[in-house]
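Final report, section 2: Outcomes. Of the targets proposed, SigE family RNA polymerase sigma factor is the one most frequently requested by collaborating groups, and we therefore present its record in full.
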Amino acid sequence: MVTRDEEFTAYVAARTPWLRRVAYLLCQDWHRADDLVQTAVTRLYVHWRRASAAENVDGYARTVLVRVYLAEQRGGWWRRVRVGQAVPDAVDEGADHAAGLDLRSALAALPPRQRAAVVLRFYCDLSVEQAADVLHCSTGTVKSQTARGLDALRRALRPEPSEEAQTWTT
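The predicted structure is given below as tokens.
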């Protein structure tokens, strides 16, 4: 028979990379993402009996992670403790790095609730209702936060007109 701790350890070992990616998308810092995941995993362990009985354990873990992130945003701790720039990760040769950096930068500029709504809706592929449940808000709030977040991303990622194009218009 598998013990509670063995079951928890197996789940965390399998899902930590996914939780870490979600945390990174929320906070835009790998070190901070690790801290968020550690806090979320600790809370998940405390409530493992309830979590393991849930219909969707991944959804339960994701909800805990997003709530940890939002609680940290409200607390202001992350603003006081900032250490230099993050060390860049390994380079993937096949990806469009400039576009990825632009998107990450634009995502990082979003307010926390908008960022959480966009990540939950488009990276985690949750429905409006599921995202509302995770964020403890109404579906209308998820829709408006998502719409505002997408609008801000579109503005941030809109290509700047070149100088040559500007000279033709004047």
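Residues 28 and 70 are 14 Å apart (CA to CA).
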